[in-house]
Amino acid sequence: EKGGYEHFMLKEIFEQPRSILDSMRGRMIAESNHLMMSGIREFENKFVNANRIIIVACGTSWHAGLVAEYLIEDLARIPVEVEYASEFRYRNPILNEKDIVIAISQSGETADTLAAIELAKSKGATIFGICNVVGSSIARATDAGAYTHAGPEIGVASTKAFTAQVTVLTLIAMIIGSKRGTLETTKLHELMVELETIPSKVEEALQLNDQIIKIAEQYKDVANCIYLGRGYNFPVALEGALKLKEISYIHAEGYPAAEMKHGPIALIDEQMPVVVIATKDSSYEKVVSNVQEVKARKGKVIAIVTEGDTTIPAMADHVIEIPETSEHLMPLLSVIPLQLLSYHIAVMRGCNVDQPRNLAKSVTVE
Ligand code: F6R
Q1: 181: phi > 0 → left, psi -120 to 50 → alpha, else beta; which?
Q2: What is the pLDDT of residue 329?
Q3: Atom 3, ligand 1: residue with shortest CA distance
Q4: Contact 175, 35 (CB under 8 A)
Q5: CB 12 within 8 A of CB 154
Q6: How remote is the CA of residue 110 from the centroid of ligand 1, in Å?
Q7: What task does this protein carry out (predicted)?
């Protein structure tokens, strides 16, 4: 049932070229400019005229929501707020009929997310769900939605569900952007073509596995780890840190790279590994400076870079090269080495990666 893999988590990491493809199948064909999602079509006018989009979720799904904030604001120019469902539900939030709430949940059973939906409904907002489990409570509680087609996720640490969520949210941002006229046709077409190449680029990123095992061997005994990223890679830094914490029990924190100098930089010494996502995008030059700041304090830099980069490799202790893509789609690639790094470190520490201590696959109590 683990398909020859030692753990479900590893199997699910390796399934991502397929699960990403399955999440866009039938919804997008670049060659014929086909871009359609039945759940959106019904509510197209609502989306096009929305005042605001509020995303509610927990954990890894909340990180996918953060990626969506960048995507929807950039491509569709609608203000987006991303909320922890547990905070939103108790905050007496300001909501009305012109707001759309997008709830993201792999299991579709997360108690806080479900309660946030009920609250938003009572205030008249339209609720759109993105769930992986068909017929789940959240899928049933929403006005409309789109399933991620990641297939069953057994490992407690979410991997393929995250990339499936980001894929579906990318399609949604592209659809709303094109309907609103904020995403021009040529740019839309370029993104569609690029999105179609992502499954094979994920496949390439998975080939880094052996290289990542060697890095994991060197860092498996650390007590702390920092993850840095900016722009589209900031949520990926948070997700990388969460993956490491939950399965290896190493204390890890993710930050927007520039925020480091406002406090976390005090933690950096020659013992501290700093994983930096430094791919070629609009914040690349800024991240180069952040890497210099870490090296000046003798931190150990593990850098995720775009293939062919020479600047960061000259400074970093370890370099992991991933394929080039549009910055809008980069989280789908940059998260892969971070999933593998956490997995291997956890296995080397003898942890139960599929069922980490204190965690359950779906959190049905608040
Ligand atoms: C992280 C993880 C959790 C879930 C969170 C939300 O690997 O598994 O943080 O992402 O409990 O779960 P869903 O998406 O089922 O609502």
Answers
A1: left
A2: 98
A3: 59
A4: yes
A5: yes
A6: 8
A7: Catalyzes the first step in hexosamine metabolism, converting fructose-6P into glucosamine-6P using glutamine as a nitrogen source.
Query: Residue 137: which residues within 8 A CB-CB, separation 6 or more?
Result: 108, 109, 114
Q: Cα of 326 to ligand 1 centre, how many Å? A: 27
Name the residue with the closest Cα to ligand 1, atom 5. Answer: 59
- Let me know the angle formed at the C-alpha of 49 by 47 and 50, rounded to the nearest 5 degrees: 65
CA distance 9 to 4: 12
CA-to-CA distance for 308 and 203, rounded, in angstroms? 18
Q: Helix/strand/coil (H, E, C) string of 296-330?
A: HCCCEEEEEEECCCCCCCCCCCEEEEECCCCCCCH
Q: What is the DSSP string of 172-188?
A: HHHHHHHHHT-S-HHHH
- Region label for 196, one of left (φ > 0), alpha (ψ between -120 and 50) or beta (otherwise): alpha
Chain-centroid distance, C-alpha 95: 26
Ligand 1 centroid distance, CA of 61 (Å): 6
Residue 217, token pair as written in the block: 């061997």
Q: Is the complex ipTM higher than 0.90?
A: yes
* List of the chain residues with pLDDT < 50: none
Sequence-separated (6 or more) residues with CB below 8 Å from residue 83: 54, 55, 56, 93, 116
Q: Three-class SS of residue 234? A: helix
What local confidence, expressed as pLDDT, does residue 360 receive? Answer: 86
